[in-house]
């Protein structure tokens, strides 16, 4: 059962990482190396978070072994049964697992991902050129690491009293990486502990959320116009280079590579300069170098990606704003049925047709949704308060002040391993949500920005993978400190978890274990207070970066966004009205065409009927005539048959004016029906 639990979690975590990568990345357009590196980084970090509760539960099986070897010996007279935990993992598996996962993630974050990041951003036209550019950009990065590591080795070699083994050097390296991660972790955690409950509370306030959406619309429209202008400038430069470099120039293939990265409408405008009568002359004209083309290639990739991202985000923001306006209108509806302003772009499925009906949608959007998010916000706020209290008191072991340590110790006494796993999972999941959601929300201008709906560039994806790999190990150590499972911090002689044994003993660097790891997390209180009063937002607003303040300072942008959405609503309404009119005309003309087709069919049937009746009457007259004359009639019939054969073979000789029309050939036995034929075919 334990192996099954571990295998199920490994598979579930993989699909979770794959789902998030599909949401933010683009499997069709982005490089396979970028996608694989990001997926591996996210997968390893999520794996550490999900498997750590199993490690804690397995560590608690020491109690199980005590129960098995001691209690069972004392209570042999009674039928005392010692149950093995359902998630018990045999010895020797978890240390190997943590060693592989941890060192793979560290190699990714400190070595491979920075190189892949520079490789993806490079504007080179060949693999060799991109590798060369990536090595040059990371020379300072890698050189700094080598300098620090070499200085450390020299310092240890000069002082013979410091006899550090390989294990202790390894612990120093892990401690340095975790210290850097903990420094950033406290900043992100202090922001997330306040912002996540507040964001859900703001969602419950429909009016406030609509005003904030107006503000976002005004800012996004400015960014969208800026991206379009930047794209126009870059495309103008590409057009000039396309006209200057002819078809037989050695750099023409590089220009073609740049053209393939341009939008389709610009490719159609510029086309390919294939003038075979005009050759390039390097003596009279100045041509761009390969380095300048690489720089232009990089600018084209960035401009096109930014333009596509702002365009998609604008459409998504419009849908959200229209939905919020519909909610505001339906709140006063007496019919208690949710009415949308615009028809959904996709056909209505069975879920909305039978389960999520307009009545259910009205009750959810106008009544239940607000209270649900308010209750969720209060629960998350209580979790945040518990985390802040535990971060400030987790170093106290007598008495135990950390709330999460109290919960785990209560479960220890009852040998409730399932409760231990659930408590550990909920706690670490909440901590990861606060930290990781901040990573997904923050934006460093246009260099780092995780945008959903497949709009995140390769640089941001790999940068997020680097952050995850650097934040997850110190986050797990901080969690183990909260529940008093890290002996280096709690100073208790306990059996270590497999994860703590891989991290090494922090007592090698006592000033970090006894000072920084204990007192630095207390700064989270100051960060939470600063986030609650929006001090960072106010500072950015004073520096000129427009932020939503909810007061008169942002009223101009709110009014601008409201006017933009009104304009877009009128535009979409005109488009829908035009489509509805065209649909009505098509239906009306389709009915007329059906009526006309029926009339033509009935007329043709009537003509065929009249033609058949006329033919039968002529035949009856001819039969009567043949019966009236015996031998003379037979001679006449023979003469008529001869004339019939002769007339059939002679296509042009005829005395009938109707038969002289082009394209008409009269049969011999219809010669006597010239008058009836003229009456039948008068309408043709």
From TrEMBL:
This is LMBR1 domain containing 2b. Pfam families: LMBR1. One of its GO terms (biological process) is adrenergic receptor signaling pathway. Its main location: membrane. Belongs to the LIMR family. InterPro entries: GPCR-associated_LMBR1, LMBR1-like_membr_prot. One of its GO terms (cellular component) is membrane. The lineage of its organism: Eukaryota, Metazoa, Chordata, Craniata, Vertebrata. It is a multi-pass membrane protein. It is found in: Membrane. PANTHER family: G-PROTEIN COUPLED RECEPTOR-ASSOCIATED PROTEIN LMBRD2 (PTHR21355). Residues 217-244 form a coiled coil. Keywords: Coiled coil, Membrane, Transmembrane, Transmembrane helix. It comes from Cyprinus carpio. Residues 611-634 have a biased composition (Polar residues). The chain crosses the membrane at residues 6-22, 34-54, 100-119, 139-158, 170-194, 371-389, 418-439, 516-535. The keyword Membrane applies. Residues 604-634, 654-684 are annotated as: Disordered.
């Amino acid at each position: 059962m334990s192996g099954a639990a571990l295998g199920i979690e490994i598979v579930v975590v993989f699909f979770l990482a794959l789902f998030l990568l599909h949401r933010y990345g683009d499997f069709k357009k982005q490089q396979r190396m970028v996608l694989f590196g990001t997926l591996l980084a996210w997968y390893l970090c999520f794996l550490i978070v999900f498997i750590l509760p199993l490690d804690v539960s397995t560590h608690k099986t020491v109690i199980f072994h005590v129960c098995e070897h001691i209690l069972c010996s004392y209570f042999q007279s009674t039928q005392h049964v010692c149950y093995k935990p359902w998630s018990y993992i045999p010895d020797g598996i978890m240390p190997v697992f943590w060693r592989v996962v941890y060192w793979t993630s560290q190699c990714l974050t400190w070595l491979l991902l920075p190189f892949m990041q520079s490789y993806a951003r490079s504007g080179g036209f060949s693999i060799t050129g991109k590798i060369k550019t990536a090595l040059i950009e990371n020379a300072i990065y890698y050189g700094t690491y080598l300098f620090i590591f070499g200085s450390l080795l020299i310092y240890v070699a000069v002082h013979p009293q410091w006899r550090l083994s390989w294990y202790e050097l390894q612990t120093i390296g892990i401690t340095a990486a975790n210290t850097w991660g903990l420094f950033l972790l406290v900043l992100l955690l202090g922001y997330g502990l306040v912002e996540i409950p507040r964001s859900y509370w703001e969602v419950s306030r429909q009016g406030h959320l609509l005003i904030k959406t107006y503000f976002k619309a005004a800012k996004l429209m400015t960014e969208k116009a800026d991206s379009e202008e930047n794209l126009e400038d870059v495309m103008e430069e590409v057009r000039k280079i396309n006209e200057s470099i002819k078809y037989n120039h050695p750099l023409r293939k590089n220009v073609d590579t740049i053209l393939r990265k341009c939008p389709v409408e610009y490719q159609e405008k510029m086309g390919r300069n294939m003038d075979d009568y005009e050759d390039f002359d390097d003596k009279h004209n100045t041509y761009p170098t390969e380095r300048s083309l690489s720089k232009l290639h990089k600018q084209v990739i960035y401009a096109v990606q930014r333009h596509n991202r702002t365009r998609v985000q604008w459409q998504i923001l419009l849908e959200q704003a229209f939905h919020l306006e519909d909610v505001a209108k339906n709140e006063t509806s007496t019919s208690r049925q949710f009415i949308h302003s615009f028809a959904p772009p996709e056909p209505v499925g069975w879920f909305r047709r039978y389960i999520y009906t307009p009545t259910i949608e009205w009750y959810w959007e106008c009544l239940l949704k607000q209270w649900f998010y308010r209750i969720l916000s209060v629960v998350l706020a209580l979790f945040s308060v518990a985390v802040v209290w535990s971060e400030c008191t987790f170093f106290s072991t007598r008495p135990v002040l950390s709330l999460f340590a109290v919960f785990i110790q209560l479960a220890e006494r009852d040998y409730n391993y399932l409760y231990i796993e659930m408590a550990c999972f909920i706690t670490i999941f909440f901590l990861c949500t606060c930290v990781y959601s901040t990573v997904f929300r923050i934006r460093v201008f246009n260099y780092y920005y995780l945008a959903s709906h497949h709009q995140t560039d390769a640089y941001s994806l790999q940068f997020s993978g680097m952050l995850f790999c650097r934040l997850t190990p110190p986050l797990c150590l901080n969690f183990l400190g909260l529940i008093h499972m890290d002996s280096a911090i709690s100073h208790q002689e306990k059996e270590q978890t497999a994860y703590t044994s891989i991290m090494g003993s922090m007592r090698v660097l006592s000033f970090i274990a006894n000072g920084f790891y204990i007192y630095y997390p207390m700064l989270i209180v100051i960060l939470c207070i600063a986030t609650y009063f929006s001090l960072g937002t106010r500072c950015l607003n004073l520096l000129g970066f427009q932020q939503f303040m909810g007061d008169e300072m942002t009223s101009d942008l709110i009014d601008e966004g409201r006017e933009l959405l009104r304009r877009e609503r009128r535009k979409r309404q005109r488009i829908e009205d035009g489509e509805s009119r065209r649909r009505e005309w098509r239906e009306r003309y389709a009915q007329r065409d059906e009526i006309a087709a029926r009339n033509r069919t009935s007329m043709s049937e009537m003509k065929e009927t009249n033609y058949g009746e006329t033919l039968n009457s002529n035949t009856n007259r001819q039969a009567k005539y043949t019966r009236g004359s015996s031998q003379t009639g037979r001679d006449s019939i023979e003469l008529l048959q001869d004339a019939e054969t002769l007339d059939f073979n002679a296509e042009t000789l005829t005395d009938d004016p109707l038969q002289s029309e082009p394209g008409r050939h009269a049969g011999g036995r219809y010669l006597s029906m010239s008058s009836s034929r003229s009456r039948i075919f008068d309408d043709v």
